[in-house]
Amino acid sequence: MHLYYTGASPNNLRKARQHAPSHSHGFGWTPQKMTPHDGPYFLDNGAYTGDFDADAYYEAIDRSLTEMPMSPDFFVLPDVYGDAEATVERHREWLYERKLPVGSGQCMRYWVLQQGLPVEEQFAAIEGCQGVFVGGPKRWKRANGAEIVHRARDQDLRTHIGNPGGEDGLVWAYRTGFDSTDTTTIFQNGYWHYLDQLEQATEETSTEPEPADARQMDLSAWC
Fold first, then answer.
1. CATH number for region 2-222
2. Phi/psi zone of residue 16: left (φ > 0), alpha (ψ -120 to 50 degrees), beta?
3. pLDDT digits 0-9 by tens, 29-63
4. Of 111, 181, 182, 183, nearest to 151 (Cα)?
5. Residue 85's Cα: distance from chain center in Å?
6. Distance CA 223, CA 221 (A)
7. Rounded to 5 degrees, what angle do the CA atoms 66, 132, 10 make?
8. CB contact at 8 A, 172 and 145
9. CA 78, CA 88: separation in Å to the nearest integer?
10. Helix (H) or strand (E) holding 181
11. Is 67 within 8 Å of 36 (Cβ atoms)?
12. d(CA 1, CA 53)
């Protein structure tokens, strides 16, 4: 699994690799903060509340393509906080009506899934994207995570779970089959044991026979 850390430093990432060497580690940047560290990263949309700054979002994508050492692994389309139905319309607006920076078409785009519409209905609406970003309350993520991973695989989409939460969050995301996740808790609170637990779960899984239908996305290119 690939882990992204919002606001991390290169030293943070080096320490994270020591605690969970079986996984890949990168940065998480937003329109509010993007530092040109040399390493893999994803670009979030910054829509954490009802306010969304479209100009800042556009400029962040442009900077990621012109000023950062490398392009993002993916960027998240703008959603409407807490409103799945309005998110579908906003995604389509940014895919087809608004102009994105030159070169952004070469990057993977992720569609936001969240509470408010049935998971099946949200998947039916997806277009023009290569992955899904799962947001919303922790309880909703946990209740729908397995279905989301299953449907995404059927549609050949990658899966990212936003901040799975809790001491068991990373282990749960890994065992559920998500390709990537992000967190701020580990660095901010010094919860390095979260990564130790993830590594232990990974070692335990590697000794078990893999189910015939299990298919964790290959992230070797992101290491």
1. 3.20.20.105
2. alpha
3. 999 999 999 999 999 999 887 789 999 999 999 99
4. 111
5. 20
6. 6
7. 45
8. yes
9. 10
10. strand 180-183
11. yes
12. 31
* Single-letter code of the amino acid located at 66: T
What's the Cα-to-Cα distance from 5 to each of 89, 101, 142, 143, 198, rounded to whole Å?
29, 25, 20, 24, 15
Domain boundaries, the chain: 2-222
Q: Which two tokens stand for residue 173?
A: 């995301």
**Token pair of 223, please?**
């290491």
36 alpha carbon, distance to own chain's centre: 19
CB atoms within 10 A of CB 59: 14
**What are 221's two structure tokens?**
């290119």
The amino acid at 29: W
Task: Summarize pLDDT for 98-135 with one digit per residue, the tens.
Answer: 989 999 999 999 999 999 999 999 999 999 999 999 99
